């Protein structure tokens, strides 16, 4: 996985949420969580695995909605932040955090209803192998996102400390076919890059987001969107 050493550093974990999901990044956080909730509903009592759960943004949210969730991540420092969030939350479901490798998931076949992998595929060295492993442990659904090749994401991609893999729609379609997954729905969003939203206060980011969403209503804009949210089913 790209940037593995950088990602596991203690100081990165401590600052991760503040740097990415404060200021205008709050809009990104809100949209990503909505995409996951919309794909999985109804959530209560669903057995869910989140790959690369990081600081637990989605795992804590899903447990709060009544799911039984396992969050897996390679970074002990990130998991520590997630456990801290879980302690502060009054969870309706159950939540366990586990350190592990997404390429070798420590679970039997068909163990989960849903597997979620957000903010992961742009770092994957072998996305097909990772997707195959997720499909192995899911009996129903896999939800993930990708950053798109023909988008503003490519403008600042070179500046990221770990690099980033960008995808075309056709590449993802090939991945789904190879891993025997059926596409239920895909949502495209954010014509403007994430980095712009994170760099400005929410008061400035909100009108930009409204403009972004307005332009996004036109079908041609789907090809220029920075991110796609994929909802797939196991055949």
UniProtKB/TrEMBL annotation:
Family annotation (CDD domains) = AdoMet_MTases
Give the matching Gene3D superfamilies. Answer: Vaccinia Virus protein VP39
Name the chain's protein: Methyltransferase domain-containing protein
Keyword set for this entry?
Answer: Methyltransferase, Transferase
Q: Where is the Methyltransferase domain?
A: 48-139
Organism name: Natrinema salsiterrestre
Kindly indicate whether the keyword Nucleotide-binding belongs to this entry. Answer: no
The record's annotation in InterPro entries points to: Methyltransf_25, SAM-dependent_MTases_sf
Q: Name one GO biological process term.
A: methylation
Q: Which GO terms describe its molecular function?
A: methyltransferase activity
Q: Does the keyword Transferase apply?
A: yes
């Amino acid at each position: 996985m790209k940037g593995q050493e950088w990602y596991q550093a203690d100081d990165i974990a401590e600052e991760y949420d503040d740097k990415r999901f404060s200021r205008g990044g709050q809009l990104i956080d809100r949209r990503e969580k909505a995409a996951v909730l919309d794909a999985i509903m109804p959530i209560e009592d669903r057995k869910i695995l989140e790959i690369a759960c990081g600081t637990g943004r989605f795992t804590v949210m899903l447990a709060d909605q009544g799911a039984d969730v396992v969050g897996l991540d390679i970074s002990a420092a990130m998991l520590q932040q997630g456990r801290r969030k879980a302690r502060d939350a009054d969870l309706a479901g159950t939540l366990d955090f586990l350190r592990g490798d997404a390429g070798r998931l420590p679970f039997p076949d068909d163990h989960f209803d849903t597997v979620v992998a957000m903010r992961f595929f742009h770092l994957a060295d072998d996305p097909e192998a990772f997707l195959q492993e997720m499909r192995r442990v899911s009996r129903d659904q896999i939800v993930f996102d990708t950053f798109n090749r023909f988008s503003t994401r490519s403008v600042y991609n070179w500046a990221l400390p770990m690099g980033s893999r960008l995808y075309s729609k056709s590449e993802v379609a090939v991945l789904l076919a190879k891993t025997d997954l059926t596409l239920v729905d895909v949502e495209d969003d954010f014509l403007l890059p994430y980095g712009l939203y994170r760099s400005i206060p929410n008061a400035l980011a909100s009108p930009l987001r409204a403009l972004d969403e307005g332009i996004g209503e036109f079908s041609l804009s789907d090809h220029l969107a920075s991110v796609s949210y994929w909802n797939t089913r196991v055949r």
